[in-house]
Design a protein that fits this description.
Distance between the termini: 30 Å
Pfam family, one: Abhydrolase_1
Number of strands: 9
GO molecular function: peroxidase activity
Protein name: AB hydrolase-1 domain-containing protein
Keywords: Oxidoreductase, Peroxidase
Number of domains: 1
CATH superfamily: Alpha/Beta hydrolase fold, catalytic domain
CATH class: Alpha Beta
Radius of gyration: 18 Å
Shape: globular
Number of helices: 10
InterPro entries: AB_hydrolase (IPR050471), AB_hydrolase_1 (IPR000073), AB_hydrolase_fold (IPR029058), Epox_hydrolase-like (IPR000639)
Order of helices and strands: EEEEHEHEHEHHHHEHEHH
Strand order of the largest sheet: 3-5-4-6-7-8-9
Helix content: 25-40%
Length: 267
């Protein structure tokens, strides 16, 4: 469908209250398929792939979260949705937070999975993470079972991006060789944005579920900071998972999202 002058791949399934699913950076909708498919049994699920992701062709220039918010609003308008429940992962969760801050009347509820407020969140900067707790070391990596290619342990975790690269190479209309260009633009985005003041989250009154992995690259202290700044938040740390929690424990993450939506839906 045509969004903000660009053709974007989109999917719609199910019936009921509207839910909009926002994928992460260097991801496709396939990464959130377990959640989207489960929700489609009870809700009308709308999803699209941002420029340069999945089956949507890339655009000239850099990525930024402001465009992500504008595209989300245009997507809602294109489907005639005055508002919707928003489920976002990583970059999609950041877009969801910004959308709820700037246009709260368009968001019924927000699920923010592995969001961050600032690039410094990855470095446990105390001014970003807040004075709630003193700086804490990350939990040690969990031992991992063998991958298909035989790799194990922490080294296998470092290669977690490989499934997404494989998906990009399979799905992208720009061809497999363009994956590096998209990855580099994503890295530039992640290292320069966002810059969200936790105090600004006080105005987000919609019910919000804040989820992350207990070994997420977005450290638990930062995730706690986000939830503490929101006036109507629920917080969940998924045990034994990293930033890839949706892929690592899809049944548990999906159950948490479904339970939250069952609580806040208007039915």
């Amino acid at each position: 469908m045509r969004i903000s002058g660009v053709d974007l791949y989109a999917e719609t399934a199910g019936a009921g209250e509207p839910v909009v699913v926002l994928h992460g950076g260097f991801c496709s909708l396939e990464s959130l398929a377990p959640i989207a498919e489960a929700l489609a049994a009870e809700y009308r699920v709308h999803a699209y792939e941002r420029p340069g992701h999945g089956r949507s062709a890339d655009i000239a220039g850099e990525y930024d979260y402001d465009r992500g918010v504008s595209d989300a609003l245009a997507f809602l308008d294109a489907h005639g949705l005055a508002d919707a429940h928003v489920v976002g992962y990583s970059d999609g969760a950041i877009i969801g937070l910004l959308l709820a801050m700037r246009r709260p009347e368009r968001v019924r509820s927000l699920t923010a999975i592995s969001a961050n407020l600032d690039p410094l969140a990855y470095d446990q900067d105390p001014e970003v993470n807040g004075p709630i707790l003193p700086p804490l070391p990350p939990l040690p990596p969990l031992p991992r079972g063998p991958r298909v290619d035989g790799a194990t342990g922490a080294g296998a975790e470092e290669d977690r991006v490989s499934p997404e690269r494989a998906a990009y190479e399979r799905l992208s209309p720009d061809g497999a060789a363009h994956a590096d260009a998209v990855w580099e633009k994503c890295v530039r985005l992640w290292t320069t944005e966002p810059h969200i003041d936790p105090a600004d989250l006080a105005g987000v009154a919609v019910p919000t579920l804040v989820l992350a992995g207990d070994r997420d690259t977005v450290r638990p202290l930062h995730t706690l900071r986000i939830a503490a700044a929101l006036p109507n938040a629920r917080l969940g740390l998924v045990p034994g998972t990293t930033h890839g929690l949706v892929d690592e424990k899809p049944e548990l993450v999906t159950a948490l999202v479904r339970d939250f939506l069952a609580e806040v839906a208007r039915r």
